[in-house]
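User: Please predict the structure of the protein below. I'd like the answer in structure-token form so I can feed it into my own downstream comparison script.

Assistant: Understood. Taking the following sequence of 76 residues as input:
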Amino acid sequence: MTQQGHTNQAKAGQRVALIVAGTGVFWVLAIMLGAEYNWSNRTRALFDLAALAGFGFALWQTYQLWRARQNDKGDD
């Protein structure tokens, strides 16, 4: 029996959570700074696309984690 929270899958889940949280904080800060310093819409869109890429990467990592857990169910 493995300890909860210390498996590779648990660490991967924590990593995904940190990616989502970090991307969200980055995005909010970029929006606030863009409004404060009157950045052009083009610059703001660049940060929006970067945030979209971060969330997309987190979604991909979540999918891979889910598939790994589905594959491990058959090994019991």
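That's the full token string. The helical segments are 8-36, 41-73.
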